[in-house]
Each structure stands twice: as C-alpha cells, then as structure tokens.
Amino acid sequence: MDRMKDWIWTRERKAAPARETLSREQIVAAAMTILDTEGIAGLSMRKLGTKLAAGATSLYWYVDTKDDLIDLLIDEVWGEIDVPEPELAGWRAGALLFGHSLRSAVLRHPWLPEVMYTRPSIGPNAMSMGSRGLVLFGAAGFSEHEIDLALGSVMSYVLGTVSAEVATREMVRKSGRSQESWVSDILEQAKVVAGDYPEMQKSVRRRTSMDLDSGLTENFVFGLDALLDGLESRVKK
User: Fold this and answer.
1) Most CB atoms closer than 10 Å: which of 30, 60, 94, 208?
2) What pLDDT was estimated at residue 21?
3) Do 28 and 76 contact (CB within 8 A), yes or no?
4) Which residue intervals of the chain bear CATH 1.10.357.10?
5) How many angstroms separate the CA atoms of 71 and 75, rounded?
6) Is there a contact between 75 and 124 (Cβ–Cβ < 8 Å)?
7) Could you count the other beta carbons within 10 Å of the beta carbon of residue 30?
8) Residue ranges of the DNA-binding region (predicted)?
9) Cα–Cα distance between 49 and 71 in angstroms, integer?
C-alpha cells in the first residue's frame, strides 16, 4: 500500500547554508505576486528565482517542490481571513464577517479555486482559521457534531459561489471587453433563446438594469443570509 504524501507541514524543515540570505517568507511573498498577476500557469521556480535575483537552487533550500510552494501560498491566503470572536460580534454577525472576508480573499487571489481542492488544507493558518471558526459556531449553540457541519456549510457555500464568480470574471477578462459590453451581449443573446420560456424572459429583463459587480454581490449576500437563516433556525428549535 502506498504511503500518503509527506506534506510540507509534517516534514522536518531543512536548515539553509549560512550563505543563503533568502527567507521562506520572502519566497512566498514574491510567489504570491506572480500568482495574483499571472495565475498558476505563470508560476515557475525559474521565474521566481529571477524575481528574487536568486538561482532556483537557492529556492530549494526553502521549498522542495513547486507543490510545496503552492501549499505555503494557500495557507498564506487562509491567514488573511477574519474570523471574529463571538464575544465581540455575536455568532451570526461574526459568521457574516467571516463569509465576506473569505470571499474577498479569494477575489484578491483568483488562482486559489484552481488548486485549493487538490490538496488538504492543514497548514498553521488553516488550523487557526478553522479553530476560530469552530469557536464562533460553537457559540451559536450547535451540538459538537453540528459545529463542524455548520462551519463546513458556510465555507462550502462561500467557496463554491466565489469560485463561480472568479470563473465569470475570467471569462470577461479573456474577452478583452468591458463588463458592461460583455453582459449586454450575453443578455441580448439570452433574450433570443428565451423566446419560448416566458419566465426566463422576465428573468433576463430583470437583469438588464444591474451591472455585473452588483449582481454578483447581491447573489452572494442573498445566499449567505439565507444559509445563516437556516442555520439559526436549527439552534432556535
């Protein structure tokens, strides 16, 4: 039986030679800049070494592989998420803040959906975020088992919704057109194909007065509020 992959979080960290002047933090920061502007396909150890004015060999003292680097970068994003203490905001307001903070982080780092489902999130920032999230949802009054499910439900909703949002924004970017022009064209085509479906015709007409950013945000806010309504109703039984 094959052993499970030895993740960077459980592997003993190598000591770099005294002559090496880089740090893992510098490497992660530089790689994040590349990813945020060029995406996963634009990141290579060679390009990262050039950005840091260092050879690829130097980088390998700090990260063994590109996969290790991706693990570090994902965990860096989890460290940006705001999960307030329930005593400060109450569990529901805290959950709202957590959900919006998570969405904002993914929008800042649109490469994340491409890789976050391909590996476990078990780094220190992920553990800290998860721990604070469990405390937050525990304050709502869920049973121990349901605390995990409630937190997981909110994360699944946010990550699923914002992943679709990232994909939509990427389609607009690749089109080379403005958001307004792209949306207008899509709606005009939708009007044509919705001709035999009166309810869809009404839906298309309702969307013509809303810009893309407002529409995506309204969709997110409505869904998150509805999900929290449902969770709140479970603990009020």
Assistant:
1) 94
2) 73
3) yes
4) 82-233
5) 6
6) yes
7) 19
8) 44-63
9) 18
Beta-carbon count within 10 A of 116 CB: 17
Q: What is the pLDDT of residues 121-178, one digit of tens each?
A: 999 999 999 999 999 999 999 998 899 999 999 999 999 999 999 999 999 999 999 9
- CA 211 – CA 179 distance, rounded (Å): 8
Task: Specify the 3-state DSSP secondary structure of 54.
Answer: coil
Locate tokens 């022009």: which residue?
Answer: 181
Count CB atoms within 10 A of the CB of residue 202: 11
| H-run or E-run covering 214 | helix 212-235
* CATH 1.10.10.60 at 1-64, yes or no: yes
Query: Within 10 Å of residue 42's Cβ, how many Cβ atoms?
Result: 12
**Contact present, 170 and 110 (Cβ < 8 Å):** yes
DSSP class of 83 = -
Which residues of the chain are in CATH 1.10.10.60 domains? Answer: 1-64
CATH number of the domain located at residue range(s) 82-233 in this protein: 1.10.357.10
Is residue 16 within 8 A of residue 62, CB to CB? The reply is: yes
Coil/strand/helix, residue 173: helix
CA distance 101 to 115: 19
Between the alpha carbon of residue 16 and those of residues 62, 64, 71, 202, the distances in Å are 7, 12, 20, 64
Alpha helix (H) ranges present in the chain?
A: 24-38, 45-51, 56-59, 66-78, 86-89, 91-108, 112-115, 124-138, 144-175, 179-193, 198-207, 212-235
